[in-house]
Amino acid sequence: MNSSRCSRRPYRALGWLLAAGWALSFPLVSELPPHRLWGWCAGTGYLAAAGATLLRRPRAAVGLALTGAVAVPLLYLVLSGQGQSEVAVIERSGRLMLESGSPYVDRPERVADYNPYLPGMALLGLPRAVLGTDGWVPRLLGDARIWCAAALFGGMWGGRRLLGGREAGLPGSGPLGSGLRGSGPPGSGLRAAAPVLVASPVVALPLAVSGVDLPLAGLCCLALAAAAAGRPVLAGAVLAGVCGLKWTAWPAVPVAVALLSAVHGRRAALRCAVPAVAGTAVLVLPAVLQQPRELVRQVFAFPTGRADVPTPASSPLPGRLIAELVPHGWWLTVGLLALGGTVVALSLLLRPPRTVVAAADRLAAGLTVAFLLAPAGRFGYLVLPVLLVLWGRWSCGAGGAGGADGAGGAVGAPGARVSRVVARGAVRGTAGQAGRKAVARTVVPQSAKLPPSSGAIWSRPPATPTTIEGAANGSAPEAQYPSASPRTGVKETVVAAVPPTGS
Question: How many CB atoms lie within 10 A of CB 335?
Fold first, then answer.
């Protein structure tokens, strides 16, 4: 163990050095003062983190990176009133929402006058409109970045809590899959990676200077977790909230609905879709009725490069290059976007996601295609799919094995240790209650310590067990079925509780 940590130490230090080099490039190439300030602060923090890593202080390294890349620049920029223009746009929209009921400026003339967000984003600007800027406490609590960060971390943490040790997407697997990990506490490695992700430039930069896309990531994670946990109404309500922020979050609705339909049935999918659509309409419809032209011009035309004022989202992504360099390129990018959306929609119909990891990956893939092919965009938009992919795996570290489509959950008691789930299974029906029939297949290496049953039973055992052992606390005994993994060829044991007599 110590030798493996020593062997990884140079690579971790190299990672911090690469982050430092990337951050220190901002003072040289960026024209935005908040970006240059963040570059100096983050670069210093990353260099200190690299040094602490080489000195065998990994926790101190993460703390130094968080201090330099997040805490210092965020607090300074918030208290001094600096930030990207998006912060001022959100806070102005909150003030306009209170004054006129609509977050949009009539007949905008400058880039700063445009509000490319749906009316729900104005809710994050309401604290500034209410608290004002007199004193450091109102400046801190009223800043939109603080509430964007709260939506990100609250959504990711809440989604992980909703999964609650289950291999998400498998009904009833929560009480069956808790605590099944390798050596060490459940999900400890992924929990340790969470602060590293926050300290990385992927999250730290937008968190400090703008934060506008972070609420989308947090709420999408929460919606997918609610869908995987079999909470369709909650998933629909969260989807309504995120879809009222930016229309780029709308693809989350079909992904969550497909996950619910595949795992919990069409009725659950409908119970999610209805509040999602209705809630989004409630948030958006007042602005549509009050300022329909401004909503179309500022929310749809401006971000796609079709307004009178050019959009500042001008990163050299494929869609923008096609739109500018190819004849009729704008329409070509629209056609490519429609083609990409059709492919993703067909994948949801033909092979719907069955786990939260698969759903997060599918949504991230669709958003990546959209951001790359859009006629206007920024590299920063890609933080949303990156966070979705990483969160899906982090959330399944709470328990269950997490995995690709159809991956099965594990049967076990909290705190039990199993080295690795190496094959796939399926859970159908209702599990988790003693005496209830269900199919709950767990495949573990034969060398692993087999956990006691939690009450799930096989309705149809696959074969005659070679051994039957009594379980602890008077629960049903376990039947062990020898098999071999079709993927790895590793000898395994399928563990299931033996049905009680008369079941």
Answer: 12
Map residue 14 onto helix, strand or coil: helix
- The single-letter DSSP state of residue 459 is S
Q: Please, are residues 404 and 355 in contact by the beta-carbon 8 Å criterion?
A: yes
d(CA 282, CA 419): 49
CA distances from 65 to 30, 61, 99 (A): 21, 6, 41
3 state DSSP class of 191: helix
Burial class (CB in 10 A: 0-12, 13-18, 19+), 80: exposed
Segment 64-75 mean pLDDT: 95
> Do 94 and 222 touch, CB atoms closer than 8 A?
no
pLDDT digits (tens, 9 = 90+) for 389-420: 988 888 775 433 344 444 333 333 333 333 22
> 113-167: per-residue pLDDT in tens?
999 999 999 999 999 999 988 888 999 999 999 999 999 999 999 998 888 744 4
More confident residue, 25 or 170: 25
To 10 degrees, the CA torsion angle through 272, 277, 282, 284? Answer: 140
- 38 and 67 Cβ atoms separated by less than 8 Å: no
pLDDT (tens digit per residue) in 282-329: 999 999 999 999 999 999 998 888 888 888 877 888 988 998 888 888
Percent of the chain with pLDDT over 70: 72
The pair of three-digit structure tokens given for residue 456, joined into one six-digit string: 């799930």
β pairing state of 427-428 and 437-440: antiparallel
CB 262 within 8 A of CB 352: yes
For residue 254, what are its two tokens?
A: 């079909």
- The helix/strand/coil state of 278 is helix
Q: Record the tokens describing residue 23, joined without a space.
A: 């951050």
Amino acid at 347: S
Please tell me the distance from the alpha carbon of residue 377 to that of residue 333, in angstroms, as a whole number.
12
| Phi, psi at 127, each rounded to 5° | -55, -40
167-219: pLDDT as tens digits: 433 333 332 233 333 334 444 455 667 888 899 998 999 999 988 889 999 99
Evaluate whether 376 touches 304 at the Cβ level (below 8 Å): yes
Cβ burial, residue 85 (10 Å; 0-12/13-18/19+): middle
pLDDT band, residue 458 (cuts 50/70/90): very low
- Residues 118 and 247: beta-carbon distance below 8 Å: yes
Q: Is the dihedral of CA 41, 43, 45, 47 positive or negative?
A: negative
Two structure tokens written together for 180 = 């099944």
* Parallel/antiparallel/unpaired status of strands 491-497 and 442-445: antiparallel
Q: Fill in the amino acid letter for 222.
A: L
The C-alpha atoms of residue 186 and residue 173 are separated, in whole angstroms, by: 16
E runs forming strands in 50-185: none
